[in-house]
Amino acid sequence: MFTPGSGQATVYWKGTRREMKSSKELTELVSIATDEIYPYAPTVQNELINRRYLSSAAAAARRSLIEAMLLHSQEERLGLNGYPPERSIYESVLRQSGIHRQNERDEWEFARPSGEDPGLQRAWDHILEVSCSELLQPKPLTDLFS
């Protein structure tokens, strides 16, 4: 229970009452709780896309990145030059995770995430399982998300 004006909140986590004296303490507890509740959620460190609603700039960057993925998948950095917003998303999602990488023949390709994030690997595997099933029928995107 948050007491307006006091700057403090009382939170119950796993049956234990905890007094939060700062927003930092509360943020840390929420982070711990979400890690426990969603242990396989992919970790994405990018302020452009790590939000509930995309800004118009982030939506444009996403569109540009998808275009680069479709047209320049065999190029380093998908042919993105400089540091536009789509490059930031590329670096934090595709490059850091190893989804876009050089293979043993020094060719750039998309592949299963090779990083340390089991959540991203599970998401990749699930997308393949759903999209490559024998019964290829249209499915709502919400089914994939769930």
Topology:
Blueprint: E1 2-3, E2 8-13, E3 16-20, H1 23-37, H2 56-71, H3 85-97, E4 100-102, E5 108-110, H4 118-131, H5 141-145
Structural commentary:
43% of the residues lie in helices and 13% in strands. By secondary structure, it is of the alpha+beta class. The chain folds into 2 domains: 2-37, no CATH class; 56-145, no CATH class. The strands form 2 sheets. It has a 3-stranded antiparallel β-sheet, covered by helices on one side. A hairpin with a 5-residue loop joins β4 and β5 (108-110).
Shape: globular
Number of helices: 5
Calculate the mean pLDDT score and round it: 87
Number of strands: 5
Describe the main β-sheet briefly.
3 strands, antiparallel
Q: In which range does the helix fraction lie?
A: 40-55%
Instruction: Briefly note the structural class of the backbone.
Output: alpha+beta
Question: What is the structure about, briefly put?
Answer:
This protein has 146 residues and is an alpha+beta fold. It contains 5 helices and 5 strands, in the order βββαααββαα.
Main traits of this protein?
5 helices; 2 domains; three-stranded antiparallel sheet; two-stranded antiparallel ribbon; 5 strands; 146 residues; alpha+beta; single chain
